[in-house]
Amino acid sequence: MFFKHRKTDRMRFGKLLLLTLALTLPIAAILPSPAARAATDTFEERAEQLLSVFASTTPTNMNNHWFFYAQARFATNTNVSTALSWVDSLNNGSHPGSMFYYVNNIETYLKFGHLYSGALKAKVKTDLTTGANVTYYTSNGSTENHKLMFKTAGYLVAQTWPDWSNASVELAGNKSELEAIMDQYVHKGLAEYDSPSYNAVTVNCLMLLAEFVQDPAFRMKAKMTLEWMLANIGAEWTNGYYVSSTLRVYPVSVTPQEGAASTIQNWLLWGGRTPSYPTSLSDHATEAHYAVSNATSTYRMPAILERIGQDRSVPYVQKENGNWNTRTSKYSYITDKFGLASQVEVQNLAWADQARRWFARWDSEEPGSTFFMTHPRLAGDYKGATIYEQVMQHNGALIGVYKIPTSGTIDGTNPILQYIEGPISTEAAKQIAEHSGWVFIHGGGTMLAVKPVKGYTWAADRTINSQTFKTLRSEYNKNGVVLEVVPASDYALAGEASLPEEDRLANELSSFKDDILANTAIDASHLDETNPRLIYTTLSGDQMDITYQYTGVYNNNRKLNGQAVAYGSWPLMDSPYMHQDYNGNTLTLNHGGESYAYDFGNWTVTSVNAPLIRWKFDEVSGVAASDSSGNGLSGSLLNGLSFGSNAVAGPVGGGALQFDGMDDVVRRDTASVSGYPFTLSAWVKTTSSANSTIQFLGNGTAFDQYVRIGMNSVGKAFLDLRNGSSTTIFSSGPVNNGQWHLITGVFENATSSKLYVDGVLQAALTNAVALPALNRMSAGALDRSVPSDRFAGAIDDVKLYTSALNASQIMALYNGN
């Protein structure tokens, strides 16, 4: 069996076979190769996979991260006694890692304290209260994430033990501090923005508060701040890769094969190319353990945020202008194959030794699929950026200029280096060609063309994290760089799929080279002026123009097609899926016909055409269908129906439920729908010819008061409205052909209802029946006082909207949006 997160929570993690394998096989044997599960897995499956790995691993050095390994064992019922001994050993008064220790300790207690003995509970209480010597007014740490951890732990400790003498003071003080932090985040952004390490810490703290804060208004603030953060991250995630300029970055390349806290956390939340966990999970520096916190959480993001992080059907630009202490304008071009990201410091460059100003990152089976050039701060070290480089970006094109002093030190000790350079992975770069000062790189699904404008040399290869990188170097004080990144499919030739891979890649790279040489133009005539200037005409015909200027405040020195780019007036966040003005109160989210408005002035969320209930049926175990709408209206699987025994593949999200036509039903008793309008919608797959109900909404204690969508004995879909008398309409053709079909019933008002199949209107009726009481929603049965009309077949993605979807919105549902 599996332990529940808390005594009242549903069990979510479950295939005992997988966990048995996790305990008997080497870690590498139970992990799929990268991308093996990218298209079809669900959050629950990814969580189960991650927990099984950590539950079967023993860390080697006692530290605060041991709490995550203990959580994995608790969640999977794996050697629980050992995990309890770890918790006992950690609560010894030494507080390793301080703020990390406090927040990890209280989190583990809140989630799994019901497994602790009375003595261990008392020991944890002492260690986190009187033994901690932590106060809200003295414990801040030295960074933004330190402060958030201290305040999160302090608040939850005070809430958990109200009999502690300092509880009331600490509760109020930490709440005030946390509210100020949240207000800053959602209006002006983070200081440690988009960090591959510390984003994970921020998300974990906010998720912990959203799950466990008891004060409803404060919990709402935590939840909204968390979802602001997830919107910000999800928009820059593409199929396993995080694409954003950043502060607080350490690795040269952060790809699924290399792992990083945020890479693995984001994969857990949105999926994509499956990460290869670092070789030594016992080494806490790998940071993979932070995602365990999300895997053991009961929080689930709204479906619209999940889709925003997954839909890469059309390339788009995400612009940001925040980061409260530096005012940095960020630009990320996101596609399904690659991303290109950069930033412009509108005011100043903070944390220069941990910044990554720009890079291209692409989908690859190999590690190291990241390219950038930079003015290194230290020889042999690519970490950080300097003020002697400036860049601008437009879609997949980027240009930069450099003005490097001929003498001086970078930090008071180390000399200013007299060159720019960039690493090229010998694994991720499948082919490299050189022509006319350009270097052309074929990365598999993506190609790059880079030109250090004044010329380049190849410095000695470098080994970084056991990978070999070629070193592209250009040794000029005043210099420029040009980069174009394109999908390789743009240059695929008819019939070349049958060629050997080496020949196919060479042909594509040659076509790309010819296009660059014929259809781009570089004007470097101003590079040697006092402030170097570079003008570039891109493959798309746009003219990019940048002049070096670094006085600390942006002064319109970048132009696109002759117009100055007004970075300072950019919104806090903007893409086709979201918008919020800098220091504005309202974040709007839009996707698939749904819209949400997050009001950070009043701390409320309103939705337009968002479902009240959504059962995706993607769980892998248990008897509860979670509600991904964010409203917490889960459904109960009854009469032996379970995800462990009845889960099948579905058309949306990966999972679906198989109903036996005998007594299976999923039920939720709710009085949330008080009248028109509303919409019922579900995917079905069946070959049955029995009269059956797909989705029921009605009076569960009466016999003949309900509305429903279903299928009749000749396989036609129907919409039915009954309240003593009845009225029914049918589809034009059958839906029991063993294929998936989307059945949608729209109840617009007292005089109009419509039936759709696969997004197409089938029939409309003028309602002649008064609307009955609606206090129960069910899937798979006419779930009235005497249930009947059981459905035999598979059902997926059951939704209830408190609005009347229109034809285009229903077609969007059918098309997967």
TrEMBL record:
Signal peptide region: 1-38
Q: Which InterPro entries has this protein been placed in? A: ConA-like_dom_sf, LamG-like, Laminin_G
Q: Which residues form the Laminin G domain?
A: 655-817
SUPFAM superfamilies, per the entry: Concanavalin A-like lectins/glucanases
Q: Write down the superkingdom of origin.
A: Bacteria
Pfam families per UniProt: Laminin_G_3
Alphabetically list the UniProt keywords.
Disulfide bond, Signal
What Gene3D superfamilies would the database entry show?
2.60.120.200
For this entry, the protein name equals Laminin G domain-containing protein
Q: Which organism is it from?
A: Paenibacillus beijingensis
